[in-house]
């Protein structure tokens, strides 16, 4: 079997997208809690028999929380970019039969190190023990198809590919599967 290869040239947007996907995958329950709290504040501000100033403050805080759903993930992305000194990495992935490497100078990584697999229309995300994520641009896969790569990784990890959790595909099962050992994004 020949190695499947792919590339990932990170940009500010890709780092932000990775952080949002990682946050949604591991901490979506926090997003739901913020949504419930913000809705409660808005409802309280509208229907409660309190002074106008208290009502307005509750409505403003609720609206601010409602519109800032991805603020935590975006601030993490900014921290990652700052930590890298603005020098965003370019990865050259090589997926072999038992391990994969992300740069020629690094030690290969075992597929069993992955804790979750996710994909969207443009990228594959391979989460490494909740500490880091490898992101693959689907349109750079060579030596096989994207489906070949997904099948190889799924077979070697015994994991299934899932869509990142969003409000459109959210279920209570997502909350029960959450992992509190998330330590933030790393490239």
Quaternary structure: single chain
Sheet with the most strands, sense and barrel status: 4 strands, antiparallel
Report the span from N to C terminus: 28 Å
Beta-strand share of residues:
15-25%
| Count of structural domains | 1
Largest sheet strand order: 1-2-3-4
Radius of gyration, in Å, reads: 20 Å
* Shape by Cα distribution: elongated
Question: What order do the SSEs take from the amino end to the carboxyl end, as H and E?
Answer: EHHHEEEEEEHEH
How many beta-strand runs?
8
Structural class designation:
alpha+beta
What does this molecule look like?
The protein has one domain. 44% of the residues lie in helices and 20% in strands. It contains 5 helices and 8 strands. Strand 6 and strand 7 form a beta hairpin. Helix 1 (12-47) packs antiparallel against helix 2. The chain is elongated, with a radius of gyration of 20 Å.
Short description:
With 187 residues, this protein is of the alpha+beta class.
Summary tags:
5 helices, alpha+beta, 187 residues
Which secondary structure elements does this structure contain, and how are they paired or packed?
Blueprint: E1 4-9, H1 12-47, H2 52-67, H3 71-83, E2 90-95, E3 99-101, E4 109-110, E5 114-119, E6 123-128, E7 132-137, H4 146-157, E8 161-162, H5 172-176
Parallel strand pairs: 5-8
Antiparallel strand pairs: 1-2, 2-3, 3-4, 5-6, 6-7
Helix pairs in contact: 1-2, 1-3
């Amino acid at each position: 079997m020949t190695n499947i290869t792919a590339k990932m040239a990170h940009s500010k947007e890709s780092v932000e997208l990775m952080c949002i996907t990682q946050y949604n995958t591991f901490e979506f329950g926090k997003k739901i809690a913020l949504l419930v709290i913000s809705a409660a504040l808005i409802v309280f501000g509208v229907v409660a028999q309190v002074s106008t100033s208290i009502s307005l403050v509750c409505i403003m805080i609720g609206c601010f929380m409602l519109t800032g759903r991805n603020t935590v993930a975006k601030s993490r992305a900014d921290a990652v970019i700052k930590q890298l000194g603005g020098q965003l990495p370019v990865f050259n992935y090589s997926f072999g039969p038992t391990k994969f490497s992300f740069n020629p100078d690094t030690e290969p990584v075992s597929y069993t190190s992955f804790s979750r697999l996710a994909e969207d229309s443009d990228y594959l995300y391979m989460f490494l023990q909740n500490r880091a994520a490898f992101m693959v641009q689907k349109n750079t896969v060579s030596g096989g198809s994207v489906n070949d790569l997904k099948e190889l990784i799924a077979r070697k990890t015994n994991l299934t590919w899932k869509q990142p959790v969003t409000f459109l595909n959210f279920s209570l099962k997502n909350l029960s599967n959450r992992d509190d050992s998330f330590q933030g994004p790393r490239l």
